[in-house]
């Protein structure tokens, strides 16, 4: 399962979501701009207050790192 913590205006978030769509991968988006609880959740998951944070079956990737994403999907 892919979960992405993002905002609608973050360039790296937009790239990551386009990449997922290009690959045909389903994902769940949590827009951290919408609720304080979501901002707290992303901090608990990653220790970061930046986006995107991508959680792939428990593997947390901070930022849009295509190679790390593909490696996490292959496992």
Automatic annotation (TrEMBL):
Domain of life, source organism: Bacteria
Coiled coil: none
Record GO biological process: cell redox homeostasis
InterPro entries in UniProt: GlrX_YruB, Glutaredoxin, Glutaredoxin_subgr, Grx-like_ET, Thioredoxin-like_sf
Stretches assigned to the Glutaredoxin domain: 3-61
Pfam families recorded: Glutaredoxin
Gene Ontology MF term list: electron transfer activity
PANTHER family per record: GLUTAREDOXIN (PTHR34386), GLUTAREDOXIN-LIKE PROTEIN NRDH (PTHR34386:SF1)
Protein name stated in the entry: NrdH-redoxin
Organism taxonomic ancestry: Bacteria, Bacillati, Bacillota, Clostridia, Eubacteriales
């Amino acid at each position: 399962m892919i979960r992405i913590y993002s905002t609608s205006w973050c360039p790296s978030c937009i790239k990551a979501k386009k990449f997922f769509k290009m690959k045909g991968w389903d994902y769940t988006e949590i827009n951290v701009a919408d609720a304080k609880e979501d901002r707290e959740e992303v901090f608990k998951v990653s220790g970061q207050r930046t986006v995107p944070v991508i959680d792939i079956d428990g593997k947390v990737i901070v930022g849009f790192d295509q190679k790390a994403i593909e490696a996490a999907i292959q496992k």
